[in-house]
Structure formats: structure tokens, C-alpha cells
């Protein structure tokens, strides 16, 4: 069984870019059914595909794999206690996922420098 967390990240990133599944499949060099299986969590992603996904979405492979990224002094919300009052756990997680997404984008941009 493939990683459902990775599948969910791929879906979320694709939807944020307002990209159709068929377009992402084309950019990865896959047919639509293979892309569908990846997003359903029934097909694993190769390392080559993972790197292409990172490039397409301008994030790191570590972000896609759910690994924490230590960026030291990256300006990201450092103190958010109290800011989550009144939010559901799902809404909190969405905010934390977005912070991780932005950190991964920052790291990806600065790796090229």
C-alpha cells in the first residue's frame, strides 16, 4: 500500500494550483489511471516521480514525505499560542500544513542560490 499522507499532499497541492489530475499526470509522464492510483494511495511514487512532484509544486521532497524541515532562522509564525482558539482540529492542522508548505517552498528557493 502506498503512503496516504503523500497522496493527500499531492491532491492538496494540485488543487491549490487549480490543476487537473490529467495535467499533473501529463507533466509527470504518466497516464491518468496511474495518477489516479497514486492519489487513491494504491500506487507508490518512484523517487524520480517524487523529485518531479517537488519541482512542479516548488516544494521539497521532504515536505512531500511529511518530514520536518529545520530551517533555523526562516521567518515563519514562531509563536501562535492563542491564535488557534475557536478552531477545529482540522482547521489547526490545515494551518500547520500551510506553514510547512511555505517553509518547504522557502527552502526549495534558497537551495538554488
Order of helices and strands: HHHHHH
What's the mean pLDDT score?
81
Please report which band the strand proportion falls in: under 5%, 5-15%, 15-25%, 25-35%, 35-45% or over 45%. under 5%
Count every helix, treating DSSP H or I runs of 4 or more residues as helices.
6
Large-scale geometry: globular
Number of strands: 0
Q: Mind telling me the CATH superfamily name of the domain at 4-64?
A: lambda repressor-like DNA-binding domains
Radius of gyration: 15 Å
The name CATH uses for the topology of the domain at 4-64 is 434 Repressor (Amino-terminal Domain)
- What distance lies between the first and last C-alpha atoms, to the nearest angstrom? 37 Å
SS-derived structural category: mainly alpha
CATH class of the domain at 4-64: Mainly Alpha
Give a structural overview:
- About 5% of the residues have low confidence.
- 60% of the residues lie in helices and 0% in strands.
- Helix 2 crosses helix 3.
- The longest helix is centred in the last third of the chain and has 23 residues.
- The chain has a domain of 61 residues: 434 Repressor (Amino-terminal Domain).
- The protein is mostly helical.
Short summary:
With 113 residues, this protein is mainly alpha-helical. The protein has 6 helices and no strands. The protein has a domain at 4-64: lambda repressor-like DNA-binding domains (434 Repressor (Amino-terminal Domain)), CATH 1.10.260.
What attributes characterize this protein structure?
113 residues; 434 Repressor (Amino-terminal Domain); 0% strand
Amino acid at each position: 500500500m502506498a503512503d496516504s499522507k503523500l497522496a493527500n499532499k499531492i491532491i492538496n497541492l494540485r488543487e491549490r494550483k487549480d490543476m487537473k489530475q490529467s495535467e499533473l499526470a501529463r507533466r509527470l509522464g504518466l497516464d491518468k489511471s496511474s495518477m489516479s492510483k497514486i492519489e487513491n494511495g494504491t500506487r507508490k511514487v518512484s523517487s524520480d516521480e517524487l523529485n518531479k512532484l517537488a519541482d512542479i509544486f516548488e516544494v521539497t521532497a521532504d515536505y512531500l514525505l511529511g518530514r520536518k524541515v529545520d530551517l533555523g532562522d526562516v521567518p515563519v509564525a514562531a509563536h501562535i499560542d492563542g491564535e488557534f482558539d475557536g478552531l477545529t482540529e482540522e482547521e489547526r492542522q490545515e494551518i500547520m500544513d500551510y506553514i510547512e508548505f511555505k517553509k518547504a517552498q522557502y527552502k526549495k528557493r534558497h537551495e538554488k542560490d
